[in-house]
Structure formats: C-alpha cells, structure tokens
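Design job #97: recover the sequence.
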C-alpha cells in the first residue's frame, strides 16, 4: 500500500496521480521500445515524438497562436531573470519592472546587472506586499524595450487577474500560475514558467515568445543564451532534460482529460473560494493579510494569532498527513499551495483540520 500525503508544497509540488502512474507504468519500457524514455537519445525518433507531442499539447491547451513559439530551456525561471534582459534590452536599456514580490524583485536585480531597468511600481513600500497594482498606478517609460511582471507572487500570495495593457511587449513570469485558466497569449510578448509548480518536475522552463521578439533578439551574447537559436533548434541545441518534458506531457494529457483550462479555472476558483471562506469565517483566528482583490488562487497565505500557534499548526497538520504548509522562510505564517493538481478533497481536508485546530481538538 502506498500512502500519499496531501501535499501543499509551493514547488516542486503535487502532480496529478494519473500522470505519475503513467510514468510508473512506462518506467522500464516506454511504448514497447525496450527501454525507459530517459534512456533514449534526445535526437532519436522516440524522444522526438514525446517532445513534439508535449509542444502540441501546450499549444492546444493554451491556444498559442502562430505568432508565438514554444521553447524549453534550463536554469529555471531564475535563468530567465537574466536571459530576458540579455536578449531583449536595447543598448543598455532593460525593461520596466513591476515589483510585487520576492521573485519580481530578483528579476529586477538581475536586470540591473545586465543593463538599466526601471522600477515601475514598488510593492514593498506600499504596505507589505499585500496587493498588486492597478494599471494606472504603474510608472511606465516610453523607451522600455519590455515591461516585466510576475503574474502570481508565490511567496506573498498575491496575483494579477488582469494584466496591464502596455505599449512595450509584456513579459510575464507565470511560474506559479501558468495554465490555471485560459490566457490570451496573443496579447503578451513573452511568458516564462519553471515547470515545477503547475506542470511537472523541476528541470525545465517553458518559454512562449512572440516571433518578432525572437528575430529582434541580440546577437552579442553566446548562442546557448539566445532565444532565436533555441527556437531554430526546436529547443534541441544540446541535450535537453528529457524526463521533465516527458512528465509535462503526462500532466498535459491529464489536464486535457479534465476538460482543459476552462475546467481548471472552475476547479481552482472553487478550491480557493472554499479555503478563503474558511479563513474569513474563523472569527479572526485565521487571518489573510492580502487585500481581497489580489488574493491568489494558487498560493493561499494566512496567519494565526501567534507564531507558537503557527508552529503547532504546521506540526499537527504534518502529523495528520497535510504537508508543506509552512510559509516561505522570508515571511513566515502558513501557505497552502493549491495548484491544478491539488484536489478539492485535499482542500476540504485542510478546512476540516483548520476548524478542529481552532477548537483545540486537532
Ligand atoms: C519559483 C519561482 C521562481 C524561481 O523558479 P526557479 O525555477 O527555481 O528558478 C521564479 N518566479 C516565480 C514567480 C516563482 O514562483
């Protein structure tokens, strides 16, 4: 018997059971090929079929138009913090950055090593990272080659539900909310996302980039870092991380079976409403610091009356099989990451645990 915990980890995070079971079934012999998918050459026909199927599934599910191209890269979302300004800056000028949390701040910091970015909004001064700005609050410049936002702030528990309309191409770090709902890709210059939160295991970063930006990309950087070269090679410049791509495929097959992104949006909104409802309905015992309009449907953060109680909450929850609830070390508190693969049943178990803990009987 396998015992699987209810896993609220922020990333790497829970994956759909059918995607894992499929990997288990195919582990030793992938589709009668006599070997595991991870033993195949990344240039062979068997892996190539998985590679192209994964791109096709992503394209279908996200309705990615012909104007954009799908890339797989390595180095995580963190590498993209550097690669975006390296590829897209004009002379020294890097983009305008909307700083809504730890990751967005790191993106800005990396851009300042490469060139001269501009801070278009600072969420640290505005209270304590408890909301995302409205479009009219942004201080955007005329000569920015792009505008950078993080659509979901994994640590702060805030999320953009409407992206700002910008003159310069919008570059969106969707690491922790890619595929939570349908998105109009045609409106965006570039999307990037580490796979390990909502798509698969760690080791691959998905990049979706407008083709004209590819073509305009700088050529004074090594080829391995150029989006245009990655695109030209169909992401197979060198040995790709084959297993993460394969696992993304399994997750996407599951997602499609669930009814695609419209079904995911309903599923995610439903879970988040239930959990925020439990927090708000606890007579102040549990408290969400995030402003209502900015509350993330992916990472739900909340506090208890004291840090001692938070410690006990995490320990008791872990003992009850609800794991990964400790908030990020930089902010403390509790964080429940409820990505696509988190079931409604898992969230209900947490809600029941919260009620029992509040009554002292957990
Ligand atoms: C996790 C995360 C990152 C960092 O991802 P790595 O793949 O570890 O580099 C960046 N941005 C956001 C929004 C994240 O949630």
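Job complete. Output follows.
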């Amino acid at each position: 018997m396998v015992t699987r915990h209810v896993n609220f980890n922020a990333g790497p995070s829970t994956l759909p059971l059918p995607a894992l079971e499929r990997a288990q079934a195919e582990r030793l012999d992938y589709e009668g090929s006599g070997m595991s998918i991870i033993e195949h050459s990344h240039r062979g026909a068997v892996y190539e079929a998985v590679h192209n199927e994964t791109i096709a599934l992503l394209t279908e599910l996200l309705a990615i138009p012909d104007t954009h191209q799908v890339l797989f890269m390595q180095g995580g979302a963190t590498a993209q913090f550097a690669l975006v300004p390296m590829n897209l800056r004009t002379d020294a000028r890097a983009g305008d950055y909307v700083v809504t949390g730890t990751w967005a701040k790191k993106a800005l910091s990396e851009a300042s090593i490469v060139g001269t970015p501009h801070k278009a909004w600072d969420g640290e001064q505005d209270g304590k990272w408890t909301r995302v700005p409205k479009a009219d609050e942004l201080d955007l410049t005329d000569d920015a080659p792009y505008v950078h936002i993080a659509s979901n702030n994994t640590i702060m528990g805030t999320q953009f539900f409407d992206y700002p309309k910008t003159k310069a191409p919008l570059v969106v770090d969707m690491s922790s909310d890619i595929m939570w709902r349908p998105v109009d890709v045609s409106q965006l210059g570039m999307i990037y996302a580490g796979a390990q939160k909502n798509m698969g295991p760690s080791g691959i970063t998905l990049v979706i980039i407008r083709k004209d930006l590819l073509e305009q990309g700088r050529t004074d950087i090594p080829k391995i870092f150029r989006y245009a070269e990655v695109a030209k090679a169909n992401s197979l410049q060198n040995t790709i991380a084959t297993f993460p791509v394969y696992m993304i495929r399994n997750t996407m097959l599951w997602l499609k079976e669930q009814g695609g992104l419209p079904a995911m949006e309903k599923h995610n909104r439903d879970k988040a409403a239930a959990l925020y409802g439990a927090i708000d309905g606890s007579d102040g015992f549990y408290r969400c610091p995030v402003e209502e309009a900015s509350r993330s449907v992916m990472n739900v953060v909340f506090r208890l009356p004291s840090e001692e109680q938070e410690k006990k909450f995490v320990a008791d929850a872990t003992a009850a099989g609800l794991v990964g609830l400790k908030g990020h070390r930089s902010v403390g508190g509790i964080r429940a990451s409820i990505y696509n693969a988190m079931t409604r049943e898992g969230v209900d178990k947490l809600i029941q645990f919260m009620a029992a803990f509040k009554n002292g009987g957990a």
